[in-house]
Amino acid sequence: MSNVRRPKNPFDDDDDEPNDFVFVPRGPSRPQEKKYPYGDFGIDEDDQEKDDHDGAVSLQTQIEERQQNMLQSTNRSLGMMYEAENVGNETAHELLRQGEQLQNIDKKLDKMNTDIDTSKKHVTSLRSVFGGVVNYFSKKPEREKPEEQERAPSKLRTMVGDGPGAKKEEQDCMDHPAMRLRDPNAGRYNSRYDTSGFEETPSSSMRGTGYNSSRQQFEQKLDSNLDEMSSGLGRLKNLGLGLGDEIERQNDDIDRITGKTDKLDTRIEGVNTDIKKILRR
């Protein structure tokens, strides 16, 4: 039995020498550390904090630019509104002067009408030989008093304040924001509507109290500009109503002057006709 050979495994090597390869068990393996803890983008913690800070600064810069653009836009609107108000005030003063001239013309027409009555009396006295005696003993005709129409006080004059306080108004006009807007050296206007404080400065950063202070200043100036725009638009509205009322008053004056002028022309033609008849005799 001992001489019986075991069947040979066909997959074994032909040589009976022992295999040189020896399997050596490895020790416990350490987990491999990731080279980039935030993924495969090569960003470490310091770079991430720097990017976050740069993003915050960029966002704050954009906010400040928008704030300054808003303030500059409201300042431009205020400037145009003040210019319109200034033009309206000049138009109002010119319109009031024109109204005074119309009133003077009206008074002169009344005086001319009275003079025509006197002239007609003298022409009548020349028609007869006894005209002078008749006119001497005749009662002097009562002169018709010119019709004085009651005029309501001018709303525009009351609004503009054209009167004893004109000097004060002129001084107020020089202090008007429209005039100060043209002069960059005017301190009071610039201090109220200045936007230079909203430039990018360390105090207006996003951290701490500086940002809140800058935001409060922006909101206060913006509210101030909007309030001034609201009151200015109200003044422009009232000024427009006053101009319209004064134009209607002067249109009535022109119609009245036109009627008096036509009547006066007719009377003058009558007197001229009487004189021509007398001269033909």
From TrEMBL:
One of the record's GO cellular component terms: plasma membrane
Keyword check for Transport: yes
Keywords of the record: Coiled coil, Protein transport, Transport
CDD domains cross-referenced by the UniProt entry: SNARE_SNAP29C, SNARE_SNAP29N
Compositional bias (Basic and acidic residues): 140-153, 165-185
Similarity field: Belongs to the SNAP-25 family.
Residue ranges of every copy of the T-SNARE coiled-coil homology domain listed in the record: 64-126, 216-278
Polar residues bias locations: 201-215
Domain of life: Eukaryota
InterPro entries assigned to the protein according to its UniProt record, in alphabetical order: T_SNARE_dom (IPR000727)
Name under which the protein is recorded: t-SNARE coiled-coil homology domain-containing protein
Species this protein is from: Patiria miniata
GO BP field: protein transport; synaptic vesicle fusion to presynaptic active zone membrane; synaptic vesicle priming
Region (Disordered): 1-55, 140-215
SMART domains the UniProt entry points to: t_SNARE
GO molecular function: SNAP receptor activity; syntaxin binding
Coiled coil: none
